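ESCALATION

Customer reports they have been waiting on this structure for their group meeting. Please prioritize. Original submission:
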Amino acid sequence: MKVLVATQKPFAKEAVDDITAILTGAGHEVALLERYESEADLCFAVADADAIIVRSDKVTPAVLEAAPKLKIVVRAGAGFDNVDLESATAHEVVVENTPGQNSNAVAELALAMMIYMSRNQFTPAAGIELQGKTLGIQAFGNVGRLVGAKAKALGMKIQAIDPYLTDEKIIEGGATPVHSLADLYSTSDFLSIHIPATPETIGSIGYDLISRMPKGALLINTARKEVIDEAGLEKALEERPDLKYVTDVMPSNYEALCEKFGVRVFATPKKMGAQTKEANVNAGIAAARQIVAYFAEGCTRFQVNR
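Update from on-call: job pushed to the front of the queue and completed.
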């Protein structure tokens, strides 16, 4: 089978070497498409591919239409909103992600952002310490649990909400369960978001929730840009000069936010959550192994479309 590795942001060389070794060792052919410029480039390259590995690359209906032999897409990472699931299902293409492979990298970034903003982006003004503060975690999956564990080691109090977990599971993960978003936001000095972008969550975090946060609170977003109602965020920051926002996904209104709120707002220039050597290698290896398992055994353990 021909496996296309299509990455506008390429994997590290070590990851490419490992991916290639795993796939060729199982008898598959590997093709690389790196730093490509347009959807047309991807459509051309995928025309004879049986499988494709992507990172944040968009697998659109046009890409799927251009790939008549395609059987499986693996997104090297946890999020999969860059793949059109409905179109993939219509084309009978399996879509998988690689959950957990980037989790530690994202969790470490969330903690780094908390410290950076607590110290006013390392400007001379006095900041605050994390010890003794309450951290709320919205979604207590792989990343959320790691954020909680690392923050607990710094002396923070951890609370979490997750509609897919029982109270017992949240407690086992080291957090106190909270049963409503209103309560989570109103009682968290720091609040870390780890929800996916779905029809239910897009634009769900806005003025009503943010304005409930305690005095001096910080909202941290290493999830998806789309989950934030940016107009509501701006309004809350205008009315509450004590609040801060830090994100790994640059808002559309970022320039306006920076002009109005200065060091109270920060966004990374490019999504950095999974940008570590270790995460890069781990996600790529997992994607390659999942493709091998799919063709060898029909394994679809990590399938996200049905």
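Sent to customer with the following note: The chain has a mean pLDDT of 96.
Escalation resolved.
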